[in-house]
C-alpha cells in the first residue's frame, strides 16, 4: 500500500461519523436475538416465561388494586350513605329541641342536611322466622333526603309515610321473614310497659309499606324505618330524639367541621364522625390493601429474575457473535445497548400486555364473576360474607401508573448485569477456540 493510499484510509477513518446510540442496527440485532431458532429454543422459552410472568404480574396487581379500591368506595358509600358523616348526640339534657337544632346545623357551610332520628334494637318476626333489627324512626321528608333509601325502593312507596303506621324494610329482611309489601310483621322490644310484675316486652304489628334494596346485605337485612312519631311512642321516647345525623359535602373534611357543628348546636353535644366510628374497619382494609400490593409485586420481581437468567444464557450462547461484532468495530456501549434492548423489550411488551389484560378484566369483572359462577355451579363472592351484592372494581390512574412504572423499572434493572457482562466480553478469549 502506497503512502497516498495509507493517507486516504487514515483520512476516511477520521471522517467516519461514530454510530449514534440505539441506532437501527442495534435494534435489528436485538430483534434477531429475540426470535427463536432451533438451537436457541430453550432461551426463547425462558424469554416467553418472563414475558408471561410480567404480563400476569402487572394484570394481577391492577385487578387486585382496582377491586380493593372498589370495595372501599362501595363500602364507604353504603356506610356513609345510611349512617351520615357526623353524629350529634345530646349531653346532660334530652334532645327535645331536635328540629331547632337540626335547622341550625343545616345553616353551617358545607352541611347538606341534618336528620333527627330515634334508634333502638328490636326483634322482628314474620311467617318465615325471626331476625334482630335496628329500628330507626325518621320523618318522611328526611327519609327522602337519603338517596340510598329513596332511590332504591323496590316495591311499595314512601308516600304518606308520616301519616300511617307503615314501615320500610330491606329486601333481604323481607326475603328472610317471608313477607312482601302489604304484609304485617311484628316488632318486639324488650323495653315495653312498666307493670307491677316488672317491664314487659312490647309487641306491635306493622304493615310493610315499602321494601328497599341498598345493595349491602348487612343493611338490607338489618334496618327498619318507621315514622318518627311512631318510633317515639313505641320506644317510650315522648318528645325526645336519639341524635342528629349530619351529611356534609366532603366526608374527608369532617375533622375541621367539628367545632363549627358544636357551636351551631348551641347546647352541650357529643360529636363523632364516620372515621371515629369505623376506624377499625377501614384501617383493616388499608392494611390488607398495602400487604396485597407488596405480595403481588413479588410476581413481577420473579419475572424480572427470569429476564436476568435468560439474558445471561443468551450472552453465553452469543459469545462468538459478540466477538465478531467487536472485531468489526462495535463498541462496548453498542453491545451493552443491544442486550439492554433485548431484555427491556420483554419487560415493556409484557407490561403493556398486562395493562391491557388488567383493564379488560376490570371493566368486565362482574360478568366474569357471573360466568365463573355459572360454569362451576357455585356462588362466588357470597353477599352474606362480603356485604356487597356485586363485585366492584374502581381503577385508580395514579396507582395504575405506579404499577406500570414499577414493572418497567424492574425489567430495566434486570437487563443491566447481563448487558454489562456482554460488553466486557474479550473478543480474543471468545474466538480463541473457534
Automatic annotation (TrEMBL):
Biological process according to GO: lipoprotein localization to outer membrane; lipoprotein transport
Intracellular or extracellular location(s): Cell membrane
Source organism, top-level taxon: Bacteria
GO cellular component, one term: plasma membrane protein complex
Keywords annotated in UniProt: Cell membrane, Lipoprotein, Membrane, Transmembrane, Transmembrane helix, Transport
Transmembrane stretches, start-end: 42-68, 291-315, 335-360, 401-420
Name of one Pfam family that matches: FtsX
Domain ABC3 transporter permease C-terminal: 293-427
Ranges where the MacB-like periplasmic core domain occurs: 51-263
Topological category with respect to the lipid bilayer: Multi-pass membrane protein
Chief localization: membrane
Family, as annotated: Belongs to the ABC-4 integral membrane protein family. LolC/E subfamily.
Name assigned to this protein: Lipoprotein-releasing system permease protein
The species this protein was found in: Roseibium marinum
Source organism phylogeny: Bacteria, Pseudomonadati, Pseudomonadota, Alphaproteobacteria, Hyphomicrobiales
Amino acid at each position: 500500500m502506497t503512502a497516498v493510499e495509507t493517507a486516504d484510509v487514515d483520512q476516511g477513518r477520521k471522517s467516519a461519523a461514530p454510530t449514534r446510540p440505539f441506532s437501527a442496527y442495534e435494534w435489528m440485532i436485538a430483534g434477531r436475538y429475540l426470535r427463536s431458532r432451533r438451537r436457541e429454543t430453550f432461551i426463547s422459552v425462558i424469554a416467553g416465561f418472563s414475558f408471561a410472568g410480567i404480563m400476569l404480574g402487572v394484570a394481577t396487581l391492577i385487578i387486585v388494586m382496582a377491586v380493593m379500591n372498589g370495595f372501599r368506595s362501595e363500602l364507604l358509600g353504603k356506610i356513609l350513605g345510611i349512617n351520615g358523616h357526623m353524629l350529634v348526640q345530646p349531653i346532660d339534657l334530652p334532645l327535645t329541641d331536635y328540629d331547632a337544632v337540626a335547622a341550625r346545623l343545616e345553616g353551617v357551610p358545607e352541611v347538606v342536611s341534618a336528620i333527627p332520628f330515634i334508634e333502638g334494637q328490636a326483634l322482628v318476626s314474620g311467617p318465615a322466622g325471626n331476625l334482630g333489627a335496628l329500628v330507626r324512626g325518621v320523618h318522611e321528608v328526611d327519609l327522602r333526603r337519603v338517596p340510598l333509601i329513596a332511590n332504591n325502593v323496590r316495591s311499595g312507596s314512601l308516600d304518606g309515610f308520616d301519616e300511617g303506621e307503615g314501615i320500610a324494610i330491606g329486601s333481604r329482611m323481607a326475603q328472610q321473614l317471608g313477607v312482601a309489601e302489604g304484609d304485617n310483621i311484628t316488632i318486639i322490644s324488650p323495653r315495653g310497659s312498666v307493670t307491677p310484675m316488672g317491664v314487659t316486652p312490647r309487641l306491635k304489628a306493622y304493615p310493610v309499606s315499602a321494601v328497599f334494596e341498598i345493595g349491602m346485605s348487612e343493611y338490607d337485612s338489618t334496618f327498619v324505618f318507621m315514622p318518627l312519631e311512631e318510633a317515639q311512642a313505641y320506644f317510650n321516647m315522648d318528645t325526645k330524639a336519639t341524635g342528629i345525623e349530619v351529611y356534609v359535602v366532603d366526608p374527608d373534611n369532617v375533622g375541621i367541621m367539628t367545632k363549627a357543628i358544636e357551636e351551631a348546636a348551641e347546647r352541650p353535644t357529643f360529636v363523632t364522625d364516620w372515621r371515629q366510628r369505623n376506624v377499625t374497619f377501614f384501617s383493616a382494609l388499608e392494611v390488607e390493601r398495602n400487604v396485597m400490593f407488596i405480595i403481588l409485586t413479588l410476581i413481577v420481581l420473579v419475572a424480572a429474575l427470569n429476564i436476568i437468567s435468560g439474558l445471561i444464557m443468551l450472552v453465553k450462547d452469543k459469545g462468538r457473535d459478540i466477538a465478531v461484532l467487536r472485531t468489526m468495530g462495535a463498541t462496548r456501549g453498542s453491545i451493552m445497548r443491544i442486550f439492554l434492548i433485548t431484555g427491556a423489550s420483554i419487560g415493556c411488551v409484557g407490561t403493556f400486555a398486562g395493562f391491557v389484560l388488567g383493564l379488560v378484566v376490570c371493566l368486565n369483572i362482574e360478568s366474569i364473576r357471573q360466568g365463573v359462577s355459572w360454569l362451576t355451579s357455585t356462588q362466588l363472592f357470597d353477599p352474606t360474607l362480603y356485604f356487597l351484592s356485586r363485585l366492584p372494581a374502581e381503577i385508580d390512574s395514579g396507582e395504575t401508573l405506579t404499577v406500570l412504572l414499577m414493572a418497567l423499572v424492574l425489567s430495566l434493572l434486570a437487563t443491566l448485569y447481563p448487558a454489562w457482562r456482554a460488553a466486557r466480553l474479550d473478543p480474543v478469549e471468545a474466538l480463541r477456540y473457534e
